Amino acid sequence: MSAYTIVIHGGAGTILKGDMTPELEAAYMEGLDAAIWAGYSVLEKGGSAVNAIKAAIVMLEDNVLFNAGKGSVFTKKGVQEMDAAIMDGSTLAAGAVAGVRNVRNPIELATEVMRNSNHVFLSGKGANDFAIKQGVKLEPDEYFFSQFRYDQWKAIRDSDNYSLDHTHQRLEELMKDKKFGTVGAVALDMDGNIAAATSTGGMTNKKYGRIGDSPVIGAGTYANNNTCGISCTGHGELFIRSVAAYDVSCLMEYKGMSLKDAMEEVVNDKLVKMGGEGGMIGVDNQGNVSMVLNSAGMYRAARSSSGFSETAIYK
Which residues does the entry assign to the active site, renumbered to this chain (predicted)? Predict the structure, then answer.
């Protein structure tokens, strides 16, 4: 029986203590703690890494503070379009969805794609049709409405600007804010299996059906029992172009690098040279944990059967 570990994130970016009220900071910490314990309790009872990360992400998707599920941002059309992916490192099986609407927990739908379809990636109406067929829980538009997300969108909806994520600050500060709203989880279970998952509402005021790195296997999400599980959060276009999550696995497999060194090279060297901002979380097949960011903050938490425990926001 191996040590078991779970790591989660709730997005990265320009997250500064000076911009945060004590109440809001406490709410984020509480949300992270609730999600990490939801996942950890699955592992503790001998559950699979896949089920553990799914449990953690459902908690984050149900929390309006995070840009995924219930807290998803508004698109140019004034609706929510959500993306998610999950990968099982023991088999390299994966499921992903993009541009789905009214799905309460997109991570549940991505898991259904992985387990019960012959495909990896479904999008738009087809993904929603599959959700109905599989009995995945749907919600009306009102469920996804939150006033502060609406206010963010209203501030920029008549422009061609988009916002990389939520802000709780004054609206005139919105466009100088860079927060990458994504949630993710990676885990190693008692049987030595690794899994990774990511879910997001994307960018405020996004148009043309834009899709970021979160649901793209190898870019925002990747898991392989031989190496690691990775979930990313950042400027998705750059993470796609650098195949960021898979690159960490490759550096470990082909160069023999440690999880931390491989993540540092991707996040603080390769991505920086491309102008890519954000971060990633990772776990390797020995239960080592790494949480690396090149931005001012990243909502994150980790728990391990070895006793390691951390919940943090700022760099």
Answer: 182
Is residue 112 assigned to a domain? no
- Report the pLDDT value the prediction gives residue 171, as an integer from 0 to 100: 36
The answer to the question of whether 209 is labelled as a binding residue is: no
Taking alpha carbons only, the member of 173, 170, 177, 189 closest to residue 229 is 189
In CATH, what number is assigned to the domain containing residue 206? 3.60.20.30
Euclidean distance between CA atoms 110 and 308, whole angstroms: 29
Please give the residue range of the domain that contains residue 216.
Answer: 5-74+85-90+145-314
CA distance 229 to 92: 11
Tell whether residue 166 is among the known ligand binding residues: no
**Residue 213, marked binder:** yes
pLDDT given at position 164:
55
**Which of the two residues, 89 and 315, has the higher pLDDT score?**
89
Q: Is 14 a catalytic residue?
A: no
Residue 113 is assigned to a structural domain of this protein: no
**List 75, 167, 182, 198, catalytic entry:** 182
| 211 is an annotated ligand-binding site residue | yes
Please tell me the pTM assigned to this model.
Answer: 0.94
The count of domains in the chain is 1
Q: What is the mean pLDDT of residues 278-298?
A: 97
Mean pLDDT for 286-310 is 97
Please report the pLDDT score of residue 84 as a whole number: 98
CA distances to 151, 177, 200 from 171, in Å: 8, 10, 22
Element (H, E) at 252: helix 244-255
Return the structure tokens found at 109.
């739908």
